[in-house]
Design goal:
Blueprint (H helix, E strand, L loop, with lengths): L21 H15 L6 H8 L3 H13 L3 E4 L4 E4 L1 H13 L1 H17 L2 E7 L4 E9 L13 E3 L3 H10 L4 H10 L8 H14 L2 E4 L6 E9 L5 E10 H4 L3 H18 L1
Antiparallel strand pairs: 1-2, 3-4, 3-8, 4-5, 6-7, 7-8
Helix pairs in contact: 1-2, 1-3, 2-3, 5-10, 6-8
Length: 262
């Protein structure tokens, strides 16, 4: 195995009124990096990925290990996420009553239309995290579950992000070119889709992200009008095509409900 560093990601909506605390910022940067890795990583890779000198990164990793947030394999000298995070995460999910309510709505949409429906939280400008999901009885089955990550800017959810995020057109265009599509739309068409998303309140991706599948997504906005999550549904294009607007309206209402509950 070799350490393959990945580019560090920045928060999408930094709050200029919050004073930076380097130890916390660096600790979370390391946790996010490890969450994106498919295998345990060494100190050098972690340090390069988050822009720290190795000695500083090592001190933070050891502190995280002491709190069970990171696990250390003494035989390989590598680090991975610790089980302590699972305990914290499960507590958060138990206390977030609105997730249970949204789950009921996802179940209703998935079962009535034979879709897979999900709620994804925007982690940063590169990744989104699935926090709730429901598979309808006749839905396509995807290798996705709670905790799965996918590129924030891809598919219908990506059009929602582009429509409501505070990111320049130049940066959006640069990120768009880096995405792996099943069938890449032209940048001109994609921009038209983004503009239509602002107008309709939901986005649609027909076979661009997943071949043969249509993905529909609606943005969940905070009180400042910024995107925090997306509610999405995916199904076979041949089954969904005639019901795109109907499903989009359901997702939009669910997104508005999620906003009111958050």
């Amino acid at each position: 195995m070799t350490d393959t560093p990945r580019k560090s990601t920045a928060l999408v909506f930094p709050d200029s009124n919050v004073r930076d605390v380097p130890a916390i910022t660096r600790g979370f940067a390391i946790l996010r990096y490890l969450s994106q890795c498919d295998e345990p990583m060494g100190v050098q890779a972690c340090a390069r990925a988050v822009g720290l000198i190795p000695s500083t990164c090592l001190h933070i990793l050891r502190a995280l290990v002491a709190q069970d947030a990171v696990a250390f394999d003494a035989s390989t000298k590598r680090y991975s996420l610790g089980l302590g995070l699972l305990a914290i995460g499960s507590t958060v999910l138990r206390r977030k009553n609105h997730l249970r309510i949204i789950q009921d709505e996802l179940d209703a949409i998935a079962n009535s239309h034979g879709l897979t429906a999900l709620l994804a939280r925007i982690v940063d400008s590169d990744h989104s995290l699935v926090v709730a999901i429901s598979h309808g009885s006749q839905a396509m089955r995807f290798n996705v579950g709670i905790g799965s990550r996918y590129p924030t800017l891809i598919g219908a959810s990506g059009r929602c992000f582009a429509a409501f995020c505070d990111v320049s057109q130049a940066e959006l265009s640069a990120r768009f070119k880096q995405l792996n599509w099943s069938r890449r739309p032209s940048i001109a068409q994609w921009r038209k889709d983004v503009a239509l998303t602002r107008m309709k309140g939901f986005a649609c991706d027909v076979g661009n992200y997943i071949e043969g599948a249509t993905v529909i997504a609606a943005p969940v906005l905070d009180h400042m009008g910024r995107l925090t999550s997306t509610v999405a549904a995916v199904g076979l294009s041949e089954r969904v095509r005639a019901r795109t607007d109907e499903i989009g309206a359901l997702l939009r209402r669910s997104a508005e409900h999620a906003r009111s509950l958050s």
